[in-house]
Known about the structure:
- By secondary structure, the protein is of the alpha+beta class.
- The protein has 2 domains: 4-165, Jelly Rolls; 175-287, Arc Repressor Mutant, subunit A (Orthogonal Bundle).
- It contains 10 helices and 11 strands.
- The protein has helices at 89-95, 118-136, 140-161, 175-191, 198-204, 209-220, 224-242, 247-253, 259-270, 274-287, and strands at residues 4-5, 16-22, 26-32, 35-42, 45-49, 52-56, 61-64, 70-74, 80-87, 102-104, 163-165.
- A hairpin with a 2-residue loop joins β5 (45-49) and β6.
- α2 (118-136) packs antiparallel against α3 (140-161) and α8 crosses α9 (259-270).
- The relative contact order is 0.13.
Amino acid sequence: MYKHEVVSADPGLPFKIVIHQGQESAIVRHWHRALEIDYIIAGRAKYTIAGTELAAAPGDVIVINTNVVHAILTEPLRPARAVTLLLPYDWLRQQIPDYDQWRFAVPIGSQHPGPPSASLKALQAALLDIDQTENGVHNATIRRLNHLRDIYTVLSLLMTHFAESDNSANTLATAASLARMSSVITYLTEHANEPLTLPAVADQVHLSVGYLSRDFKKQIGVPLMTYLSQLRLQNAYDLLTNSDLPISTIADQTGFPNEKSFRQRFTKTYGQRPSAYRQNLRRSKIDR
């Protein structure tokens, strides 16, 4: 998910359920109109939500409101498991007619130490049940009914205990600004392996360099060239962990100016050189 993401529902359900299981995962900054709810079952993750960093641990429920820019990085080389709900905007408006007037905020353990409240326990239980249903109920009809039950429980708990009135909620920017940023990020995604510069990108998307630089950082939260570097790193990570390509080839195919630049960026983010990270990842898979 590199950009403004259009979320489609699962077949037979009006929303999307994603079960994450495995090792490292990095998702660069993006946004979508869907309401996203993440429940961390195992492992740890660092979220950046609207410019604020959050450290999420098992038991935490992370709510990402409509059109809020966010990024995710899970803990390196540690098994992770999480369930993500993506509730489409139009469906939410049907269930909650004044949805645009609300935002949801669920406290996480690092912010509010101590035992969870009864309402948070109920929310955790409903989300865990979604994970268990997805993996343990094989009858399609029963699985669908269980998911519908749990999703409505989640929505009821959010509205009853975790909703905050906010007339400015769900307005990352004007529709025009969102459209501009979507086109810019689409271009970056499609051409990340090329030697791009800020003036070259501005020329391609028909914006002045100054306007593109200011608006991109305002809406996405990081400078455009920083975002491009993060995107290249994510693409390189995928090749590093899912292929046997040499490090130099990975650097070349993902747009880094040279192997040294890639090694430095990777080591700064993941705490290990690319070659060592690949070896440790393969060793951890053998040991499991």
